[in-house]
C-alpha cells in the first residue's frame, strides 16, 4: 500500500510522513528530497536555473516512480497534486491524505521554516498572507480530492492511524 500526503508548503507533510511510516512500519519517501538526490540540485536552485515547467515534468516522472513502491508513505511537494493528472494518479496508486491548515497558520509556519520555498522566495513578509491565500485557493480544488482530509492543527496521530486503518480495510 502507498499513502500519499498532500498539502500546502510547510503543512508538515514530511514530518508527519516520517512518524506515520514509523508507526506503520513502512518506508518513507519525500518527493522533494528524491528530486534533489536524483538531480543533485536543490529545488530552489533548480527553479532559479531552469523553470517551473521543467521541474513539474521531472516531478511527474518521480511521482510515477513512487507507484511501483509498496508499503510506503510518500510526502509530495505542495504543488505536486496540482499539475497534469497527478491527483488522479495519486488517488489511483494509493490512499491520499490532505493535511489541511488555515491560511494564517500556514503563514506563521512558513515564517519559521528553514527550507526556502521557490514560489515564495521573492514575496515580502507583508505580502505573504495574501499570496498564500490566493495560491491556496487555486490548489484547494486538487487537495480536496484526497481520500482523507485531516486538520494539521491539533493533529492526533492515533486518530489518524485509526482513519487510515479503516480506509485500508475498505479497499
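-> sequence recovered:
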Amino acid at each position: 500500500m502507498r499513502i500519499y500526503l498532500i498539502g500546502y508548503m510547510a503543512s508538515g507533510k514530511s514530518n508527519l510522513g516520517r512518524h506515520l511510516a514509523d508507526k506503520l512500519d513502512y518506508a518513507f519517501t519525500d518527493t522533494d528530497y528524491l528530486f534533489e538526490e536524483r538531480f543533485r540540485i536543490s529545488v530552489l536552485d533548480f527553479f532559479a536555473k531552469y523553470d517551473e515547467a521543467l521541474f513539474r515534468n521531472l516531478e511527474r516522472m518521480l511521482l510515477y516512480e513512487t507507484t511501483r513502491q509498496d508499503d510506503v508513505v510518500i510526502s509530495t511537494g505542495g504543488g505536486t497534486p496540482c499539475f497534469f493528472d497527478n491527483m488522479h494518479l495519486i488517488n489511483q496508486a494509493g490512499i491520499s491524505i490532505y493535511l489541511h491548515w488555515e491560511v494564517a497558520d500556514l503563514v506563521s509556519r512558513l515564517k519559521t521554516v528553514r527550507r526556502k520555498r521557490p514560489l515564495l522566495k521573492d514575496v515580502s513578509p507583508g505580502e505573504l498572507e495574501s499570496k498564500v491565500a490566493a495560491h491556496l485557493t487555486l490548489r484547494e480544488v486538487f487537495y480536496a480530492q484526497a481520500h482523507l482530509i485531516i486538520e494539521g492543527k491539533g493533529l492526533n496521530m492515533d486518530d489518524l492511524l485509526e482513519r487510515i486503518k479503516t480506509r485500508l480495510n475498505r479497499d
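The chain has a mean pLDDT of 92.
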